[in-house]
Amino acid sequence: MSIIMKGSEVAAAMKEELLREVEKLARKGIVPQLGIVRVGARPDDLAYERGAIKKMGGVGIRCKVIELSESIGQADFEQEFSAVDNNPDIHGILLFRPLPRQLDEQSVRNMINPKKDIDCMSPVNIAKVFSGDESGFAPCTAEAVMEVLAHYAIDVRGKRVTVVGRSMVVGKPLSMLLLKKNATVTICHTKTINLEETCRNAEILVAAAGKAAMITADFVSENSVVVDVGINVGSDGKLCGDVDFDAVVAKVASITPVPGGVGAVTSSVLAEHVVRAANSLNGLS
Amino acid sequence: MSIIMKGSEVAAAMKEELLREVEKLARKGIVPQLGIVRVGARPDDLAYERGAIKKMGGVGIRCKVIELSESIGQADFEQEFSAVDNNPDIHGILLFRPLPRQLDEQSVRNMINPKKDIDCMSPVNIAKVFSGDESGFAPCTAEAVMEVLAHYAIDVRGKRVTVVGRSMVVGKPLSMLLLKKNATVTICHTKTINLEETCRNAEILVAAAGKAAMITADFVSENSVVVDVGINVGSDGKLCGDVDFDAVVAKVASITPVPGGVGAVTSSVLAEHVVRAANSLNGLS
């Protein structure tokens, strides 16, 4: 019987810890607050925003949404962003990306206070993730994978872990988080020759390629632990991961579903980052 | 017959290109200059410094050594460093590390102008290496490995490359440079289980563990390309790499010796970085 690693269970455990942390802050008169900066109103962003606000509300984190015009110029954008960055009541900032074409993302990456940069935009946090310095903030999705593995007591130490995908939001930072925990990490991508074998040979397989159902039964073995980070729209119009779940589930040791897997943990990591930022900005822990 | 990949051949080819580049700068009235900041006078640093000065001189790059007292305080150190950083005639800065205990390395990492940071201390350059942005400077030794592979026409694209070692000066940045060139990269380290097999399974094996002669004949196959980044003192008191050269050389396709391999290319990369910095700081190419 394969174990289905459910994001909701991980999120529930994280919620308890978050409630305790927020309560501790409240006793010091601090209410952690997330600033959400959104340029325009893309449906995807709005959907994520609704989810994030609900998640934050559920653990006592305040949210402030700063909605800016899709046609805003660089100077005005920087001024608005700077106001959020300098607002002492806002501890973490989430900026929806990509930004519209007229805006320079690099300049905001260099501008954001690294202590409020809870989704790893700043070179300071990127460099920390790369070097294994845990005092920074890793991208939330990459960290969500680590939370799932930890919750299901899957020790990565010394294990062969194959990561498919090398993006800066999942594949690469996740590889560094795994390396920090002493996994032996192989990073695969579209140019990898014999991807099937490399995946099948892994004890833990993380699919973060963004390609619907590309991981079939040939990519796994009986002992595989499979973590699916993909969120795609399948040929049937339904949400699906990078893993062909139905074909793989019976064959492997454990697997995360999509939806209801890693994606369900990401906003919990975001909340954890806001709480950590609130502590750090107030000189606590 | 195994091919011995000699650093001197790589360096000779790089020298020709460097001479051309320096000549081009000269026609614009620019003499590239390296600033070497040394705190104290460790014999290792002095030896590297002599080699670097000789290498720079050979291609027409000027050197300025700023020697500071081993007991210098943070404020004085920052003032001295800042003077070098702001000197428009100095295009690249090499700072010997580790710094003495009383000095804060992190502060100088954040202080250095990323455009003069030719050995990848600044978070800006570290983040660039991680993200695959080639406009920054990678650590010289990591890049020297890429130069050796390129010179000997070893295409890494799609290949299984195993890197042993995960330091921030070689293992990790090199893995990112290899990934950028579309290699399938496996990062191994002291906690890797079954290291022998993982190494033997690689088409290209890079040893950057800092452990004398740890790579024996059992770690390689007939088709292995072996690059040895280690510089250790062996049990016989002689310089040796991470690879047991005599035991491995006859078995593999090609291999770099130690000394005379990657180490002989590092200062050529440093020179190339100074020239690139001189161009970039002057708004050229």
UniProtKB/TrEMBL annotation, chains A, B:
Q: Does the keyword Zinc apply?
A: no
In which organism is this protein found? Candidatus Cryosericum hinesii
Q: Which regions span the lipid bilayer? A: none
Task: State the name under which the record lists this protein.
Answer: Bifunctional protein FolD
Q: What UniProt keywords apply to this chain's record, in alphabetical order?
A: Amino-acid biosynthesis, Histidine biosynthesis, Hydrolase, Methionine biosynthesis, Multifunctional enzyme, NADP, One-carbon metabolism, Oxidoreductase, Purine biosynthesis
Instruction: State which Enzyme Commission number(s) the record gives.
Output: 1.5.1.5, 3.5.4.9
Subunit structure, briefly?
Homodimer.
Instruction: State what this protein does.
Output: Catalyzes the oxidation of 5,10-methylenetetrahydrofolate to 5,10-methenyltetrahydrofolate and then the hydrolysis of 5,10-methenyltetrahydrofolate to 10-formyltetrahydrofolate.
Its recorded reaction(s) are: (6R)-5,10-methenyltetrahydrofolate + H2O = (6R)-10-formyltetrahydrofolate + H(+); (6R)-5,10-methylene-5,6,7,8-tetrahydrofolate + NADP(+) = (6R)-5,10-methenyltetrahydrofolate + NADPH
Q: Which gene encodes it?
A: folD
